[in-house]
Amino acid sequence: MTIAPTRPNDSLAGDLAAGTPWPTLTGRGTGHELTVDGIALIDIAQEYGTPVQVISEAEVRERSRAYRRAFAGCDVAYAAKAFLTSTMARWMMEEGLHLDVCSGGELALAAASGVPMERILLHGNAKTPQELATAHRWGVGRIVVDSRAEISQLAALGHSGDGHRRQKVLLRVLPGVVGHTHKSVDTGREDQQFGFSLASGAALEAVRRMMSHPELELAGLHCHIGSQISDLQAYVRAARAMVGLLVQIRDLTGIVLPELDLGGGHAVAYRAGDRELDPAPLAAALRSTVERECTEAAYPLPRLVIEPGRAIVARAGVTIYRVINVKRTSDGALFVAVDGGMSDNPRPALYDARYTVRLIGRVHSAPTERVTVVGRHCEAGDVLARDADLPGDIRPGDLLVMLCTGAYQHSMASNYNMVRRAPVVSVRDGRTELLVRRETEDDLMRRDVDEQPPRGLSRWSGRPIRRRTCWSAVRREIPCRRFR
Ligand code: LLP
């Protein structure tokens, strides 16, 4: 379908003045079409189809730089779970960040992308013995130890990497801090499954246990109090508690731990008026808290590590959908159904996440209505945006763009209803680059290992099986690059 670039009357200027989280480089093209870093969103929809996730490379890089500036002298480890592709891993390395991974899959992708092992931290409250063994053999920089079983498993693996190095580990601690965020991601509280409790003495006991294993080098402590946290004071309380534990460990064991990792979780604004946590004030508050607490206890300043994920990538992303149908219910509510849904973005269903949605690509004059944007999946909970303000004349074929979808979208996408996962396209200086192609139906069937009938014939009818491969979607291989 060809869409003529028209002069849309949606108010970008009004949106920007209100703080609506468009990517920073959003503007207008020559035909007044909406662009991100010089590329019209409608052109991306036309070239790559919909739904499609778009990532502004410049925004990812600028946000990474903002973190490195604010946290100069600290290590900034990007939390790959927010969004990971080999290109993203390369951007992170080029920007001087480290990488926090939380599974064998993320670790394998990082390794295949050439991320140096010493710049990787491995997380997970249920790492499998295989994941631990691989990380250990590959010489991953830091393994964040989450349980007693892991301590003995890691120790049993002996020295790491080349066989001479002691495996560096951090100890994950539950600092008992409430993050005042969605309960599914409020992970610093005492009643959680992560790490060792500070209050109960389990963390201290784990430190003693580690000391009895010469194969392990306890480099420091880690905590992550949750995600989408906008309360600066929650981080200050966590930092204070963690320095308190460092001091206690020194006083009781004589060991001075050189590193303190305060995790990620910094809130971003999904809609105008949402609270977010800027890296600069956060860094200032964390530094001054740690410095003050350390000075008071005559403790040498630890090297700080932080692990932002969402804050690096969320706002760099938008997702374009096509409207498939529009329905008005008997009570007057307007449902707008699009060609994606909870399979490409489960966040509204999981966390009641709210987003901003805008119509792009055509002029409209109808008054704005409050509509519900729903997906294509077979359940009433498949809602992408419950309260979107869209023109009342919205119709099939229209394009919608959902803002601030760079984080926890591609990484949480599924094949529910055997829907093919959407591609990811980066934009930079007026050019697009395909980072992840759209799935094909062959991809969907690749893992299905039911015994094959005689080649190409249906077991039931004996007739040839129709298989469709969308070769136009298989555009190119992403080369694997080395950074050293
Ligand atoms: N470090 C650790 C140990 C983590 O568990 C996480 C996120 C992060 C860092 C990064 O947090 P961020 O800066 O991205 O908030 N699926 C949920 C988010 C789950 C986050 C889990 N851990 C969502 O879509 O909101």
Uncertain spans, ≥5 residues at pLDDT below 50? 1-9, 470-484
Strand content: 15-25%
Mind telling me the CATH class of the largest domain?
Alpha Beta
How many distinct folded domains?
3
Instruction: Kindly name the structural category.
Output: alpha/beta
Oligomer: single chain
CATH superfamily of the largest domain: Alanine racemase
Hetero groups: ligand LLP
At CATH level 2, the architecture of the largest domain is Alpha-Beta Barrel
State mean pLDDT (0 to 100 scale). 91
- The share of residues in helices is 25-40%
CATH fold annotation of the largest domain:
TIM Barrel
Specify Rg, calculated over alpha carbons: 24 Å
Distance between the termini: 45 Å
